Amino acid sequence: MKIIRDKKNRIIPITLEQVKTQCIIDLEYGDEDEKLDRFLKSTINTFENYISGEILLTDVTIITDDVSGDEFKFKVGGFSSLSGVTVNDIEITGCTVITNDYSEIDYSHNNHFILQLPESVNAGDIVKIYFKTGFDEVPSDILDAILRGVNDKYDANYIDKRTLNELNSYIINYWDY
Question: What are the two backbone dihedrals, phi and then psi, of residue 58, each rounded to the nearest 5 degrees?
Fold first, then answer.
């Protein structure tokens, strides 16, 4: 089984204004916008790696030839919607997806989905499943965690620079004596 996640053209539904507000940065101050954008993408990537799934809406394709029957369980978290299914490059309609809805209480609730086909496939048939994972709108608790993560990266970057500047100042003052 091969899983392909297309993360190139994903839209981040978190604004720079939200990030600046969390980091207590004047909204008009633009010198660090690029850095904040990198911190945001890095934080989202870290969180997605941690949960082994997508937070941002992502196109996913599963390609497999080792299934048979008419019902399959796939361990892919954050299922959002089915885009299509082909068997040996022939589009199959009438497929049903069974998954638990996302719950802000229990994230593990949505770590798989079951695909039911209207007809059986045989072992060796090439089955391609096209679907989306992640959220159109990031749930508030996940949004808060991402913004805090960006803030931590921003604070760590600021503290490191200030500490380095203080150390440089100390060294320069030392050599002046």
Answer: -135, 135
